[in-house]
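S.,

Sequence below, as promised.
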Amino acid sequence: MTLEEVVGCDMADKKMDTVSQALEELLVAAQRQDCLTVGVYESAKLMNVDPDSVVLCVLATDEEDEDDIALQIHFTLLQAFCCENDINILRVSGLRRLAQVLGEPGDVDNSTGGSSNNNSNSSEPRDFHCILVTNPQCQPLKCQALQEVGNYCDESRCRNQWVPCLSLRER
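The prediction came back faster than expected:
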């Protein structure tokens, strides 16, 4: 490996860590301001009703989900809709970390399907496979993390990577 390759890899790792941290901050801020929709079906319903309010779509999977054909079909449709409506998309691995960030007690069950609930006090675990961040016109969500994640998505599109991927690390 050349010095340029080593430095380039190190900088890419730092960028990924920065964007991962920004995503976590954004999700927490959006949840506090009630600008978060959690669940594949809930997200699809919101995008159908008010796509202009959606600023980010996070599609989360782990290795166990790669063989879930129904989930992959949902993801394909959501990605197509997001591309058509200029909504930033991120593919994320690390469902457990997402649950920790969003205050979900216990382990995340990957088989929750579409029976999620936005209420974190619900006894049923939420479906973290799809998370939407909305930015209502009346009270816009303003935070540096949203700008960082948006810039990362823009940079990825410039490199013809339409659905950038991030890996959230356990802490």
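Residues 16 and 145 are 13 Å apart (CA to CA).

Coffee later?
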